[in-house]
Amino acid sequence: MKAGVIAVQGDVSEHADAVRRAAASHGVDAEVVEIRDAGVVPDCDVLLMPGGESTTISRLLHEEGIDEEIVAHVAADKPLLATCAGLIVASRDAKDDRVATLDVLDVSVDRNAFGRQADSFEAPLDVTGLDEPFPAVFIRAPVIDEVGGDVAVLASWDDDPVAVQQGSVIATSFHPELTPDSRIHDLAFFRQEHAESPAGTGADA
Ligand code: GLN
């Protein structure tokens, strides 16, 4: 399985480790590539779009021509896990002219609505599809304030959705890569029906 981590900016190596751990738990070798240029996304089975600074990430994706490749990846029903700033970039509307959203996920978001960096926190979160709560780390996290009809809410915090799914896209306000727990990566890449064949496992979905 070839996993591409969007690496124009943000926390890349943690996602690479998490996808390797999730793959290993299925006996699958993940080849992880860091994506900074156009031309790599089309070869990837799954994609990760990390946290960081959404204004910077969206600008660089556009400058490098990677933005359209991500849209095509999702249009081909291939898995994408977008976290925090990645969620903002994936959304339909970030209510901020500096973020050119990709509109691959029918949600609107409020950037930094969970507060400033100092207000970062960790909370045990009930997530649809996981047996035990997930230790969710929130860092200047976006709030999802509107969810389209095709979007399933997988987890909420204080009545706000913080993990959502639309087709092959799973997105979280929090940072699932910052704990040793790789169950969100597992959910995104190995437990969706359509993820079966791209992930190359043929395993139980
Ligand atoms: N606040 C950041 C943004 O708006 C996202 C924070 C993060 O990814 N941890 O881009």
From TrEMBL:
Pathway entry: Cofactor biosynthesis; pyridoxal 5'-phosphate biosynthesis
Keyword presence, Lyase: yes
Active site location: 84 (nucleophile), 175 (charge relay system), 177 (charge relay system)
PANTHER family found in the cross-reference section: PYRIDOXAL 5'-PHOSPHATE SYNTHASE SUBUNIT SNO, PYRIDOXAL 5'-PHOSPHATE SYNTHASE SUBUNIT SNO1-RELATED
Family matches, as HAMAP family: PdxT
Function: Catalyzes the hydrolysis of glutamine to glutamate and ammonia as part of the biosynthesis of pyridoxal 5'-phosphate. The resulting ammonia molecule is channeled to the active site of PdxS.
Protein name in the entry: Pyridoxal 5'-phosphate synthase subunit PdxT
Organism of provenance: Halobaculum lipolyticum
Lineage start: Archaea, Methanobacteriati, Methanobacteriota, Stenosarchaea group, Halobacteria
Annotated gene: pdxT
